[in-house]
Amino acid sequence: MSIATKEQKVKSILDIYRNRDPVFGYRYVADPYLGCSQQCTYCANPIELETQTVQVRLNAAEVLSRQLVKKSRETVGIGYKCDPYMPLEKHYLITHDLLQVLAVQGFPVHIKTRSTLVLRDKKILQEIASKTMASVTFEFCSPFISLAKQLEPNVPSPIKRFNALHNLASKGVTCGVALNPILPFIGDDQKGIKQIIIAAKESGASYILKAPLSIASKHERAFLAFLETNYRELVQPYRFLYGREGIVPDSYWQPINEMIETLAREQGMRCEAPYWTEVQSKQLSLF
Ligand code: SF4
């Protein structure tokens, strides 16, 4: 199914949350697009399902520049409600322009993506890293090429993502890996998870993040249709596991969470999103 784009001028681009996101640590978020064209089977992003439209925020950089004036300097998340390096970005350069604003105004950034196009912006990321912090989280649902191809057919292969991670990490950009989403009975086996964590370490990642699949929203429930076609035997186990709430119970998640934390610790990596604030940085410089 093809994705349409809706070019828009927005009044606001910066969302400021009271609390940091429990997985990615975002509090300030500036997304260049709303929705994503890459159509991963499990995607939770708010693309308009009926119209299959991605919103392109044409004036994002200009608006961000204005909105950051007088804001306390904290990490700005990019890629909360989109993949900021989906193919559209080659043409629009909106993520690139947002990074330039952050570099000029001295704000740190944390990007999450499944794309290798982020390498295009290596120089700006290095500039931000030299002033505050630049971090890039690459997301994975499986290390296995054929499974990844089936689940996320339009993003670069796991090997290409690890190569991109290695390239950025070797240039001083903080990099990590998010096991996101962990797909019950498909991508939750220890062998695959361990393979991702070891590859992350060998590529230069310094942290691991993780989140289970949710099917609580209308967008997320589309994954059940994918199961119906491709893993029919899993439809009932998913319905049983997710119940009415559409989220996995603790009894499922806790052992997996602990297993990931143990594997990450063994590789010397933390399970915490990178974060930089001016206040913290000043406090540290006093010691
Ligand atoms: S790359 Fe991320 S945002 Fe885009 S479709 Fe895949 S999961 Fe959704």
Written overview of the protein:
- The protein has helices spanning about 60-65, 90, 95-105, 120-130, 145-150, 160-170, 190-205, 220-230, 235-240, 250-265, 280-285, and strands at about 5-10, 15, 30, 35, 55, 75-80, 110-115, 135-140, 175-180, 205-210.
- By secondary structure, it is an alpha/beta fold.
- Helix 3 runs parallel beside helix 4 (about 120-130), helix 6 (about 160-170) runs parallel beside helix 7 and helix 7 (about 190-205) packs parallel to helix 10.
- The N and C termini lie far apart (about 55 Å).
- The relative contact order is 0.13.
- Iron/sulfur cluster binds near residues 83, 86 and 114.
List the helices and strands and how they pair.
Elements: E1 4-8, E2 14-16, E3 28-30, E4 33-34, E5 53-57, H1 60-67, E6 76-78, H2 88-92, H3 94-105, E7 109-113, H4 122-131, E8 134-140, H5 145-151, H6 158-169, E9 174-182, H7 190-203, E10 207-212, H8 218-230, H9 235-242, H10 250-266, H11 278-285
Parallel strand pairs: 1-5, 3-6, 6-7, 7-8, 8-9, 9-10
Antiparallel strand pairs: 2-3, 4-5
Helix pairs in contact: 1-3, 3-4, 6-7, 7-10
Bound molecules: iron/sulfur cluster.
Residues 36, 38-40, 43, 45, 82-83, 86, 114, 152, 155 line the site of iron/sulfur cluster.
